[in-house]
Amino acid sequence: MEISVNGQSRTLPDAAVDPAMPLLWVLRDVLNLTGTKFGCGVAACGACTVQVNGQAVRSCVTPLSAVAGQAIKTIEALGSAEHPHALQAAWIAHQVPQCGYCQSGMLMAAAALIEKNPHPSDADIDAAITNLCRCGTYQRVRAAIHSAAQRMRKAGDAKAQV
Fold this sequence. Notes:
With about 160 residues, this protein is of the alpha+beta class. It is built from five helices and five strands. The protein has two domains: about 80 residues, Roll (Ubiquitin-like (UB roll)); about 80 residues, DNA polymerase, domain 1, CATH 1.10.150.120. The longest helix is centred in the last third of the chain and has 24 residues.
């Protein structure tokens, strides 16, 4: 089976995967993309959130067969140490991460939100970011999303003026 992950076509060995296998385990155990975390296994916490065709998806309950032919994006493709995504920079500036375990899923959900809605309200953020954080940094998450959205809008304005 072939899937597209982070802009690359990846061939999965038939012996290593079952079409019913959750996407989370394909990413972590077969492709060694360990940024996506296992939290609860029942789609409640969001630690496993990735994007499929730009939509935030809980990978722990998404069977591999459901994502065949679709674009999958994991935290590994959001940004880099040299060129962090605006959300990653805002996460640091607003001191969002505490233990950090839920952060990759939260960032992927936030990126999907801003892509669809570059002017999210607090209500929009609360509706879209249903990820659980045991450290309780929700106010910082909201502030960081607003900050990143503003930065991304300004960057888009700068590109439009060039």
